[in-house]
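pinging the channel bc i need a second pair of eyes. not urgent but kinda urgent?? the chain im working w is below, pasted from the shared doc
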Amino acid sequence: MITDERCAKYIESLDRQLTPLLADIEKRSEESGVPIIRKSARSLIRFALSDIQPENILELGTAVAFSAIFMATYGPKNAHIDTVENYDKRIEEAKRNISLAGMEERIRLIEGDALEVLEELVSSQKSYDMIFIDAAKAQYPNYLPLCRDLLRDGGLLISDNVLFDGDIVQSRFAVRRRDRTIHSRMREYLRMLSEDEEFVTTILPIGDGMTLSVKHGSVTQVRDDGQQKA
């Protein structure tokens, strides 16, 4: 836990209760060890949904479809969600949960590798109002350029699990050897986001760390001679 645990528990206690179906999916996920978005992250996502009212949402990392159903439940009623998953066992459970929610018309489950799916979506000139990344951490830097292309100007990119249980601040050699690749890739991702002039980004110590990035499109810069350049 990145923030004080007592404070985090208190904040979570103030959050609204889940629908019975979402509560059941949460319970089953906890019992089977399937990670889903943390309670603190849900509040932020719900706020973002209310604020920007996205009609088209892309999610990378469906798992059992908890977050997709959550966004469809608490987002605009006309919102459509494309969600991407590559793990067969979770795909089947996600399909069942989407069916139980009666949201087959609003949630499209795309099966396949996230990078390949992103490339196909870019080729088809898809556009999204909001993108939520909650997939393989080591791939985040590879996702970013494609997500930038898919996000409309003024759209919101949310990235989950970016602080690596707080270990992101540690030296690469202070983390376990098996985690070093993810550690370095996530640092690279945060640097890329922070330096990308098409985004305004904030990094929040919520849950396991989240970023909110608003895309402003092409940036006009002022040269030393006072003239503008694209």
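so Confidence is low (pLDDT under 50) at residues 219-230. and The beta strands are 56-60, 80-85, 107-111, 128-133, 151-160, 199-204, 210-215, 221-222, 228-229. — does that match what u expected or am i reading it wrong
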